[in-house]
Amino acid sequence: MKQMIKLYAHPANEHQHQVNVIRWSLAHRAQYPDLKLLHAVPNGGRRDPIEAKHLQDEGLKPGVPDLDLPVPHGRYHGLRIEMKDDTGRTSPEQDWWLGELREQGYFCEVCHGWESAVRVLEWYLGLGEFKL
Fold first, then answer.
1. Comparing C-alpha atoms, which of 91, 95, 106 is closest to residue 44?
2. Quick one: 66 exposed, middle or buried, by C-beta within 10 A (0-12, 13-18, 19+)?
3. CB proximity list for 86: less than 8 A, separation 6 or greater
4. Which residue, of 90, 116, 130, 131, is most buried by count of CB atoms within 10 Å of its CB?
């Protein structure tokens, strides 16, 4: 019996796309058990100045990718996804983080829309099947 998941039918913003990715991951954990480690990095959003200062003091850094899958596959140490809506662009801070993480051996991708992120996740999780 296939599990039904409630997705945003026509996601209009980055939040809705990212919610669809997480809902998809919850429904596909039997097929891809490593999805249990997929999590969001709450870097964006609007906060009052006091909360923003507390988060910065705790190590919050601008530009860190939105989704993290800390599971090595193939030659990569893990997967990082920066979510965007259909027209979104990365900031200089996001570009810096993606470049630095790639240099450290992570697979990083900017995904425009949730379907793009799902394709990246499926590809990445399939890498473990091709070990030599």
1. 91
2. buried
3. 112, 113
4. 116
